[in-house]
Structures are given as C-alpha cells and as structure tokens.
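Hello K.,

You asked for the raw outputs rather than the summary table, so here they are, unedited. I folded two proteins back to back in the same session to keep the settings identical. This is the first:
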Amino acid sequence: MQALLSSLTALTRAIDVANEHIGRVASWLALLMVLLQFVVVVMRYIFGFGYIAMQEGIIYLHATLFLVGAGYTLLHGGHVRVDIFYREAPPRWRALIDLLGVILFLMPVCVVIGWASWPYLEQSWSVFESSAETSGIPAIYALKSMILVFVVLIALQGLSLALHAVLTLAGRERRHDRTAEAA
C-alpha cells in the first residue's frame, strides 16, 4: 500500500510540474499577443496598411494561451468553483468535493469534448485546412489541434487533483488546499 501511495505521489508531482512549466511558457503568449496587437494597430492607423496573417496571429495566440493554459489554471485553483461549501470546509471535505467533482464533472466533460472534436479535427487535418484569406495563416488545422491539447492537459491535471484528494483522504497529505500547494 505504501508503494502505491508513493507512486501516486510521484505521479501527481510529475503532472503538476509538467502543467506548471507548460503554463509558464504559455504565459509568454500573452505578452506576444499584446505586442502583436500593438504592431497591428500602429501599422493600420499610423501607416495605413495591415497584414491579415498578423491579425489572425492574434487570434491564434489568444486561443492557444487559453487552451494550453487551462491545466495550469486548474493546478492553481483559478477555475470557476461554487465556493459555498468548499471555502470553509475542512481539508478532508475539500478533498472529497474535488474527487467527486473530477469524477462526475471534469472527466466526463473532457471525454465529451475529445470525442466530439475528433471528427472536426480529423476533417481539418485531412485537407490541411488553411485560412479563407489568401494572405492568412495556412494552419487552421494546427490551431484546432489545440482542442485536443486542452483536453489532455486538463484531464491530466484533473487526474492529479483526484489523486491529491485520494492522498488527502488516505492521510498521506495533511492539507488539501490546491492554491497553497501549487504556489
């Protein structure tokens, strides 16, 4: 039993570290997006011309930032939660709420999103879907692939959250405060 709990602890640590690094790298997309938006505005309103690919680039950066950063947000407890019961609950109750939330809500939603998006992505990849604009970014299929990246990262972080809850319920972790643990 101790070996299993140690393995679960190592797995949660690995998932948390991976999403931490991915989130920190993805956060730089926000700066890139702001800089690109600034350049687009200056070019359009001061110099009177623009590039569609740059405008689409803002959309690509924005979508990628949110989809790839979702696991990081879940790691740090930044997702939407009904806090009526959770905030004042003791650690074991928080762990139970997290475990049930992952099993009943998060994982089923991940499965549905992955399942529903697969044909959509498959069709996009089959034709290497590109922008409708001739000077746009010819990689809509890559942008749509971020949906699956989102599903994988959020499901992995959900697994980690559930395992943290199990470890808390088993007495292996003393407290169950996701924002304090991840910080």
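The second followed immediately with the same parameters:
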Amino acid sequence: MNIAVDAMGGDHAPAVTVQGALWAQSELEVNITLVGDQDLLAQELSGRKKAGNGIRIHHCTQMVGMDEAPLKVLRRRRDASIMVAFDLVRKGRADAVVSAGNSGATIGAAALLLGRIRGVEKPGLAGVFPGAKGKVVLIDVGANVETTPRQLFEFGIMGDIFTRSLLNMDNPKVGILNIGEEGGKGNERVRIAHDMLKKGPFNFIGNVEGRHIFSGDVQVIVSDGFVGNVAVKLSEGMAETMGIMVEREMSRSLLSRVGFWLSRRAFENLKRNLDYAEYGGALLLGVKGVGIICHGSSSPKAIKNAIRAARDFVNSRVQDQLEERLGRFRSGGL
C-alpha cells in the first residue's frame, strides 16, 4: 500500500508532516510518498532518522496556502501539492491521500480529480468522536456549509456504511442533529431530511441533540457541515479546557497531588480518548478514492494516525460498499 501525504499542507509543514510520515512508515508498514518541494523535503529527511525504502518524494513546485480561496487557486495551480497527491491516486500510483492543508482545496481536488460516486451530490466529511458507550460518527464536519435535504439523506447512507464497515458496528443507530428530539423541531430543511431518513434502509431513530454526540447512544449523527464543524471545534476546546482545569485543581494541595498521582493512569486514558490526534483526521466520503483531512495544526502523532486511518479505510473496501449500496438506492427511487 502506498499513501500520498501532502507534505506542504498544514500550519507547520513540512516538518510535522515529514515526522508523522516517518513514524507511520516505521510503525504501520506502509509505503509513503511525500508530495512537495524536493529540496525542502530532502532537507527535512536528512535531519531526522534515516528513512527506509518505504519513503519516497514526489516533487511539485506549488502549494495552496491555508487562507487562500481554494477553487480559484486550484484552477491556476495544477502543480499544487494537493492536486498532485490526488492525481497519484487517480493514476493508480497511490491508494489514498492524507492532508493537513487547506480543507476546501483538499475537498475540491478530490472531487475534481477522482470524481464523485454516482448518486452522491456532495461528499461529506465523517469525524469519529469518543462516546461514553463507544465511538460515534458525525457527518458532515465541515465539507459543506449549506446542504439540501437530499444531501443530508446521502450523509445518513454513507455514515451507516462507514460505521458498519470500518468500525465494525452491527445495525448502528442513525439520527439527525437538531434542536430537539421531537419530530416537528428544526428548520424546514432538517424536517424534510428527517422524513426522508425515516424511509432509508438503516436504523433511523429520529432527531438527536448535541448531548448525544458523546453519549454513544446513537452511533451515526447526520448534520450539515456548518453545525458539524462548530460541534467539532467546541468539543476540542472543551477537552483542552478540561485538561487545564484538572491540572490546576490537582496542584492546589498536597492531598490533591497525591490523589492525582494515584489516579494518573485513569487521567491519562481519559486524555488520550479525548485527544483528536488519536483519530488523525476526518474521512472524505462520496468520492472515488480515499482522502483524509487533518487539522491544520496537526501534530506528528495526528499525521501518523491519519495515515493509519487511510490504511484501514483502504483495507476495509468501504468505497466498494458505498458504490454498491448507493446504486441500489438509486434503483429503488430514493
């Protein structure tokens, strides 16, 4: 397997992406192609642990900045690292792409070069959350600010397939994020989507609220990308704040410090479960290929785990199942 890493994408590229790729290559036994400026990447590699034969560089001359308008840039910069990375997948020279760069450019490049699965109007980003009773998938977490009811219905289909195949959950519960659990709640778009999802071939349980994201009572939660992204950023900020507050409280007295020392393993496990770096990034569902989008501020650990997620996604053959089931839904008139 060969994973193409957009080595020029992210707030701290290429240093962080190179380090993460090296860790992944040594721990996960995958081949990695670093896509970016050859001189910069060679310099990064030379100052670190010697890379094995599983690390290669694919030179390109351009990149997309984090604050640039993605569609305009993609039209002008065909040699941008994210375009080149997805072109490697299109040509069969890579199995997946991992990028911590401009998310709009990543989604645009994937749709442009790989194309959408037939029957999918817009791709969706699936994020994995740590629930009290197990993992929870939220889709969409940022690919689409505005969505139609039909697109929300498609997110439900893709989220159900993803959860069954990659997370090995049997008959996951699917809900749509709303301001209340009652069927008549929400705006017109969400109410129409709710009625469509009721007819879907999955275990739809109705409206869910924000508190259900972490309860684990519902395994797949459907949302538009605007609300989903706010939920992601809110949860990450909450986790960071909780860590700071716990450390502050534990340092207030000798008794607190002793208590923290005795329970440190439990706190370490909690911190790991809440750390987004453990999940690497969000998976782009609905395109004819595999793409993982990471935070712009991703650490090497997050890049490594995103590469792991890409490997697992390819091995699970979720793409084939998406195409097959979406085809059945089209023929059934949904």
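The chain is about 50% helix and 15% strand.

Happy to rerun anything if the numbers look odd on your end.

Regards,
P.
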